[in-house]
Amino acid sequence: MVLKSRSILLPLLLHFLIIAHCLVAEDALDDSNPCGIFFTKFTACLRFATGKIRTPNKECCDSISDINNDEEKDMLCLCYLIQRIHHGNSTHLMIMGVQETVLLQLPSACNFEYANVADCPKLMELPPDSPDAAIFNNFTSSASPPSASPPLTYAWFEGV
User: Fold this and answer.
1) Radius of gyration of the chain (CA)
2) Which of 5, 18, 62, 86 has the most neighbouring CB atoms within 10 Å?
3) What is the DSSP string of 54-110?
4) How far apart are CA 97 and CA 100, in angstroms?
5) Could you tell me the pTM of the whole model?
6) d(Cα 115, Cα 146) in Å, to the nearest integer?
7) What is the domain partition of the chain in residue ranges?
8) Rounded distance, CA 40 to CA 140, Å?
9) Separation CA 19–CA 157 (nearest Å)
10) pLDDT digit string (tens) for 55-106?
11) Cα–Cα distance measured from residue 13 to residue 71, given in angstroms and rounded to the nearest whole number
């Protein structure tokens, strides 16, 4: 029994470390990347974000709880993450299977009272009628087609 649990645990741990490395690029904790700390916290939510579990666990919600406490920077980082996945601009996250629809549900799935993805267009300073704003405004629909407009780019966000 011990041998069997070790044989499962080692590949799982290795997989987690690879994912964490992909999310947190070498310079992610550098001051030039304001989302580096958020990505470190977000690794606790990968099982939910990839659809492996139906609801986020306590560790996930606790690790990103700053998005619920007037920490606009962390919520902004989640918004950028969703936007990048929507446009297919994050190869690492797409390879890992991070799902846009699941990320859109993350604040409500964690029962965060003050964090809402509908606030992303305002936080990101997007025009309300832009295709990128629609990503967040139409998140209750089952699937939204990719926008035809080119995605916004943020130089410090390119490593993710």
Assistant:
1) 16
2) 86
3) SS--HHHHHHTGGGGTT-HHHHHHHHHHHHHHHHT--HHHHHHT--HHHHHHHHHHT
4) 9
5) 0.69
6) 24
7) 2-157
8) 28
9) 17
10) 999 999 999 998 887 668 899 999 999 999 999 988 888 898 999 999 999 9
11) 30
